[in-house]
Amino acid sequence: MGIIPIISLVIFIASLSIYLLLTSRGRFLLKSLITKIKRQEWRFRYSKLKYLRSRFLKTITIAALIMAAVIAGNTVSAQVTPPLASLKSISVPQPDNLGDFVKDKVAAIKLGKALFWDMQVGSDGETSCASCHFHAGADNRSKNQINPGLLRINADGTANPDTIFNVGGLPNYQLKPEDFPFHKLSNPNDPTTLVSDKNDVSSSQGAFNTKFVDVIPGNAQDKVTNEPDPVFNVGGINVRHVQGRNTPTVINAAFNFRNFWDGRAQNIFNGVNPFGLRDPNASVVKAENPNQPKFVKISLNNSSLASQALGPPLSSTELSANGRTFQEIGDKFGRLNNGKKLPRKLGKKLFALRPLGKQIVHPQDSVLGRDSRWPKAGLKDRTYEQMIQDAFKPEWWKSNRLIQVDAQGQRNIVKRPDRSLETNEYTLTEYNFSLFFGLAIQLYESTLIANDTPFDRFLEGNTTALTPQQQKGKQIFEGKGLCIGCHVGSELTAASVSSVAKDGRIKRAPFGQRSPEDNGFFNIGVRPATEDPALGGNDGLFGNGQGNPLSEAQLALWGKFQLLLGENPPILTPPLNSNETAFANGAFKAPGLRNVELTAPYFHNGGQATLEQVVDFYNRGGDFGVLPPLNLSPEEKQQLVAFLKGLTDERVRYDKAPFDHPQLFVPNGHPGNSTSVINDGTGKATDSLLEIHAVGRNGGSASPNFLN
User: Fold this and answer.
1) Is the dihedral of CA 140, 142, 145, 148 positive or negative?
2) Residue 214 to residue 570: CA distance in whole angstroms
3) CB environment 668-686: b (16+ within 10 A), e (fewer)
4) Does residue 74 surpass a pLDDT of 50?
């Protein structure tokens, strides 16, 4: 090598070093580089010198690319940190073809709010969507809220559920502040000072272990058979099952491109289940002519909330007994046909349930107030069938034909009921109930937008909206804390619709092996991936726990992206290679952070109880070795926590419109403790019910946060 190239190389390396070490943007870039390297399981902290030497030339190439970006005025940090605007400037995503289904959006929102809060939706007549989303859109209960780790798998991907309760020892345990964090260190800044480690999950209690038999139209409770629960029982008496992941807030979830922690609720809504175009058999019925209904496939984009809404009502661990369908939920709410009760399988007779018939609706409720029967329960002069007809176009509910489903699942359109025990007959309204339920819930949840935080007002130009301490925390959030690596944009998440529109559904990691990854999903080392594969799992559509990968990057590598997602995969540089493996195992959707002060416990496992514990986690570089340590001082930690509290919308804290709600009774553990509960006579433990009072548009008093 000649002297001029050597001098040029020395000048280049010196310039790069000065930039990376002496400028704030350069330091952020350097830490971002380290983060990406660690995601590839390069371990700088262990000084693998031989490995580093073998990668020297590749590192110089990466550095040259970085410097070229710097010279071009388009640095990585500039790409990661675009100028932020208030969330008020971001439109709530809506389906392009919503008008093909909904005729009155206001009526659909009213229907969605009623369904979301109605306890009659659950098989037991006591649980609703809101049962796990009543406090700042999340769940602040603390008794019988532990799952022992049932999502654990072996290294080969086969199921290996952990049934041992490490936190509390048994179900129905009352959590305490000293139980947290689940990964305990004597020095929270030093990951080597391990005291104890527990793989349990703090989540939300749902349904008892029962098998669905039938609905009893006009009755809030389904007919079920109780089945022994080998895990969730106290002395052989069943207690409520607890979910395998912590409950995220539904507030601002409308901005997510996909929903659920693992992204299984698809952006495309198929009207039937959470899986969008992945399910080739999903269809609804349309009757452009009431005498000639037809099976059709539908597709609504920007509808992951509708997809998400269809999961819990049929989940045997959340709201439902095993084996229930949406048609039967619709049938449960009943209907009349020309004044005559319409017969169906087993000669059951249908009677209407009053919407919110077990709950008081405040007369000043911002959506339902005009229909309130205050101080009586329910809505006046309304049935769910009428609410559906008010909200949706008639071709989706009006027909004089029935849809018949036989024991093998074959579907036929018939003129009159067949009383055979081998069939089910459904009206068009019943058959399409999943369509109405999903879209109505989505439209209601799309009103739950928290965009009036001190942070948002600061971004709008009010320089005193954030305190000086919070402003310093904001600088840490955007710089030294590396928070904006995942919590980007006005929505504060890379999993948003706008982030995906800007950067694509999949992209390459910018450093290391540059493997493909799903935009907005990250493995930050909260727990080992074998405890919960999350995005590394599959959609289960093949049965027996098998299906296509949830990871869209992996679908692209397998050549299934267009088939299952309805569009061509993004063109990446370098092009995708089928021999690659996507970053997916243990990756979870990055949540938005507004109201994070109110939504403890934190992370997908609910293993941190306070924001201080969360900041400690990031400061030490995570618990399972994929993040760089931040080396924040105690004062900087306090500043960062103060900033996170500046993300609270006070309307959420005080349940002011649009966050007001009907009365709700939520199961809150069972009378007794982890060694003794009361048998209700059927093999189930009696419930303790917590009343959430109805509030109107002006809100009420703030409810306590988790463990406060």
Assistant:
1) positive
2) 46
3) bbbebebeebeeeeebbbe
4) no
Contact criterion met (CB below 8 Å) for 551 and 536: yes
The pLDDT of residue 358 is above 70: yes
Does residue 337 carry a pLDDT above 60?
A: no
Average pLDDT for 227-248: 97
**What is the distance between the alpha carbons of residues 11 and 1, in angstroms, rounded to a whole number?**
15
- The confidence band for 353, taking pLDDT boundaries of 50, 70 and 90, is confident
Query: Which strand (E) or helix (H) includes residue 665?
Result: strand 664-667
Establish whether the linkage from the previous residue to 228 is cis, with ω within 30° of 0.
no
- Residue type at 625? G
* 313 pLDDT tier (thresholds 50, 70, 90): low
Kindly indicate the confidence band of residue 327, based on its pLDDT and cuts at 50, 70 and 90: low
pLDDT at 14 exceeding the cut of 70: no
Ramachandran area for residue 681 (φ above 0: left; ψ -120 to 50: alpha; else beta):
left
Residue-wise burial string across 572-583, b where 16 or more C-beta atoms lie within 10 A, e elsewhere: beeebeeebebb
Q: Report residue 10's pLDDT band, with 50, 70 and 90 as the boundaries.
A: very low
With beta carbons less than 8 A apart as the criterion, state whether 74 and 510 touch: no
- Are the C-beta atoms of 479 and 78 separated by less than 8 Å? no
State mean pLDDT over 323-352. 38
Among candidates 487, 528, 477, which has minimal Cα distance to 183? 528
Q: 583 with 524: CB under 8 angstroms?
A: no
Nearby residues of 204 by Cβ (< 8 Å), 6 or more positions away: 131, 132, 139, 141, 145, 242, 243, 246, 247
Contact residues for 350 (Cβ-Cβ < 8 A; gap 6+): 217, 218, 331, 334, 335, 336, 341, 342, 344
CA distance 558 to 386: 46
pLDDT on residue 122: 84
What is the C-alpha separation between 297 and 285, in angstroms, rounded?
8
Neighbours of 542 (CB within 10 A): 10
* Residues whose CB falls within 8 Å of the CB of residue 581, separated by 6 or more in sequence, listed in order: 515, 554, 557
Residue carrying the six token digits 């046909």: 337
Q: Cβ distance 160 to 154 under 8 Å?
A: yes
| Token digits of residue 31 | 């830490």
Residue 453 scores a pLDDT above 90: yes
* Sign of the CA dihedral with 151 first, then 157, 163, and 169 last: negative
Strand partners, 340: 337
43: pLDDT strictly greater than 50: no
DSSP codes of every residue in 505-537: SEEE-SSTT--EEETTEE--SSS-GGG--BTTS
The percent helix, strand, coil of the chain (3-state, each to 5) is 30, 15, 55
CA 299/CA 499 separation, integer angstroms: 22
DSSP track, 38-88: HHTT--GGGT-HHHHHHTHHHHHHHHHHHHHHHHTT--HHHHHSPPP--GG
Mean pLDDT for the chain overall: 85
Average pLDDT over residues 163-188: 98
Of 196-200, 338-342, 348-352, minimum mean pLDDT range: 338-342
For the beta carbon of residue 631, count every other beta carbon within 10 angstroms: 11
Q: Is the pLDDT of residue 79 over 50?
A: no
